[in-house]
Write a structure and sequence with these properties.
Blueprint lengths: L28 H35 L6 H30 L5 H35 L1 H7 L2 H19 L2 H4 L18 H36 L10 H7 L7 H19 L6 H56 L7 H25 L1 H11 L6
Family: Belongs to the G-protein coupled receptor 1 family.
Organism: Liparis tanakae (Tanaka's snailfish)
GO molecular function, one term: G protein-coupled serotonin receptor activity
């Protein structure tokens, strides 16, 4: 999101000095040019990395049937949103940040600002729906598994885009092109304090509070589920006892319930009413108990990793976007406060950096993504 004009003028700005002070040598044109080139290269590398990483996540999900799930559909939608940020927002922002002035006209300015606010807000809100999906899956695994469909995920994504567009549209109604004046800067008018409060709370503060609450509950639920697994006990359990005492992981709930039904059926066929020997029955129960126990251990490990991944994503999101939204809110409320334009540029690009961090986290901490990503890097088509 861009709410302040880009500037390198702080390198060349005049300031009051004591009369006897020796003025520092002015920046030469060659030095300024080298700074602009270095900054352009750095921002271009960040933009290119954002494009490639999100494109690989989208391709990985598309080419891997095992990843065709509602949860991964939400992750893929987040990658599409971050890809739009890197293609439609960040390149123009590079030109604006380096050149210090807007030279693309009023129409392009309006389109760019609307795209900036819409896509960045949608990226943030995608994190909320992913956390909400995760929360429902871990706290109400059996019931939510029945409702966790692609249609439901698509509806959640649709709500995200409706909210994002409703936050980005209002500035278009009061921005007026000045026919006889050349447009020198392109930024949202922070004098509209009501809109600033509406947009910052809708795009960041409310989603952040929601994310923190959801992650707290997910963390507590995951720890409770992990400690309820039979791995902490040294004795063996029968299949019935394991079903009663262990809560299957949301990631394994479908397999868990179907396996338990099959196990119960095999017990009924093997010994129920057919005179099976007690030794045979005990052997079958022990083997089934070991199987369920091992599955619960694997699910607990997945639960830990998924919760850790979500926590890292939450932390990265707050670090990337908090400075920008705090600065925006302070500038709107405190008219006498001042931020260095270069500092605001750093805050803006730190927010854009979140679109690069999201796919990196998913590919680094998710084993399924990591394996599929490695295959994709080897140019091997798979199913």
């Amino acid at each position: 999101m861009e709410l302040g004009n880009s500037s390198l003028d702080n390198f060349t700005s005049n300031y009051t000095e004591p009369p006897d002070a020796i003025p520092p040598p002015p920046w030469s044109e060659a030095t300024l040019l080298s700074l602009q080139i270095s900054l352009s290269v750095l921002l271009a590398v960040i933009t290119l990395a954002t494009v490639l990483s999100n494109a690989f996540v989208i391709a990985t999900i598309y080419l891997t049937r095992k990843l065709h799930t509602p949860a991964n559909f939400l992750i893929g939608s987040l990658a599409v949103t971050d890809l739009l940020v890197s293609i439609l927002v960040m390149p123009i922002s590079i030109v604006y940040t380096v050149s210090k002035t807007w030279a693309l006209g009023q129409i392009v300015c309006d389109i760019w600002l609307s795209s900036d606010i819409t896509f960045c807000t949608a990226s943030i809100l995608h994190l909320c729906v992913i956390a909400l999906d995760r929360y429902w899956a871990i706290t109400d695994a059996l019931e939510y598994t029945k409702r966790r469909t692609m249609r439901r995920a698509a509806i959640m994504v649709g709500v995200v885009w409706v909210i994002s567009i409703s936050i980005s549209m209002p500035p278009l109604f009061w921005r007026q092109a000045k026919a006889h004046e050349e447009l020198k800067e392109c930024m949202v008018n922070t004098d509209q304090i009501s809109y600033t409060l509406y947009s910052t709370f809708g795009a960041f503060y409310v989603p952040t509070v929601l994310l923190i609450i959801l992650y707290g509950r997910i963390y507590v639920a995951a720890r409770t589920r992990i400690f309820k697994t039979p791995s902490s006990s040294g004795k063996r359990f029968t299949t019935a006892q394991l079903i009663q005492t262990s809560a299957a992981s949301s990631l394994c709930s479908l397999n868990s319930s179907s396996n338990q039904e099959a196990q119960q059926h095999s017990l009924n066929v093997g010994g129920g009413g057919s005179g099976g020997s007690p030794l045979f029955m005990n052997s079958v129960k022990v083997k089934l108990a070991d199987s369920v126990l091992e599955r619960n251990r694997l699910c607990a490990a997945r639960e830990r990793k998924a919760t850790k991944t979500l926590g890292i994503i939450l932390g990265a999101f707050i670090v990337c976007w908090l400075p920008f939204f705090v600065g925006t809110l302070v500038m709107a409320i405190c008219k006498e406060c001042w931020f260095d334009p270069a500092l605001f540029d750093i805050f803006t690009w730190l927010g854009y950096l979140n679109s690069l961090i999201n796919p990196v986290i998913y590919t680094a901490f998710n084993d399924e993504f990591k394996q599929a990503f490695q295959k994709l890097m080897k140019f091997r088509r798979f199913s």
